Structures are given as C-alpha cells and as structure tokens.
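Worked example 2:
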Amino acid sequence: MSNAMVCWFSIGSTYTYLTSQRIKNILQNQTQNFVIKPFSVRKIMMDMGNIPFPSSKMEKVNYMWRDIERRSKKYGISVPKTPVPYPLKNFDLANLIGILAVKEGWYLDYFETTYALWFSKNLEAGSEKNLKQTCLKIDQDFNEVMNKVNSPNILSAYNNNTDEARKNSIFGAPSFQVLDEIFWGDDRLDDAVEYYNSIL
C-alpha cells in the first residue's frame, strides 16, 4: 500500500451522503496525496451475510435517517429530505460511472452532485434522471459517459477494486485507509485525515 490516503467509496451507502458533501474541501485543503477507489460494498456485505438496514428493522432504519439529518445540520450541509429512495436499483451503474470518473479526473464533482440530487431532490443515484442532471451540472456529456462506462476495462477495474477492498479488510463504506490502518464511516473521516497528517 502506498503512502496515499485511500478513500474507499461506494455510491449507495446512505451515510456516505455526509462524506460526499464535504470531502472535496477536506481532501483538497488537508491532504494532497489521496486515491479514490470506487468498489462494490454491496458485494462484500452480501458475501458477509450483512444487510445493514433491512425493512424488517424499521427502528434502525428510522434512526439512520434521523441521524443523517442531525449530522447534516452539524456539518452545515444541506439537510436531506428523508427517507430517500433506498436501496439503489442501479447500484453498480452508479459506481461503474465512478470508476470512469476517477480515470478522467471528475470523481469528486460526480460524487458530490449525484448524492446531492439523490438526497435533496429524491432523484435516485444511478437512475437516468439523476445521471442526466448530474452530467449537466458537472459539464459531462451523458451519452458519451454511458458509452464509455460499458467498456470491459471499467468493469474489470470495478471488480479489481472490490477484490482489493476485501483483501484490505474493508467491510463498509465510506472507509479510509492510511497504510494498514482502516477508518470506517463518515464519522471517522476527520480521524483518518489527522492520522495521515501525523505520519507525513
């Protein structure tokens, strides 16, 4: 593992909304060396037999939405209109586009915008409506993006990232890795950055 801070992101994770709306400023101003790795947290969790917020546990689901609202207010970001559509129908597509976005250098804009539309406008990430509006807002051509994302290289990179995440004991998203140290959850982002800066 390199000395970069690795950001393991999976669009579809609800708490990742909080990260998506503040990560750009944190990474660009507090760390200069970071790597973003979109992966399938759904695949890893299914392999573990873990369903984080099942409809059979509504108390936990309701707590999640309220917690995200509270933390949004704490961070000074847009408080979402919960509940939002969940789980994502087009989970893999949302993250395959993330792979393309990393390769082309527009991931953070995509990440922030697709989550904002999902949580503030109820436009489900990965849906055609969300993706068209996201592309428009970040100056990407929707049709070109959809053509590129069908490349076997994109799928291969996505699967490789997921395998690498599993090998590095990543079990949830968002997760942040500094050397062999894992920081899981939006509420550990600041700890990850602090630790990263302490070992420079």
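Residues 5-198 form a domain with the Glutaredoxin fold (CATH 3.40.30.10). Strands lie at 5-9, 34-38, 175-178, 181-184.
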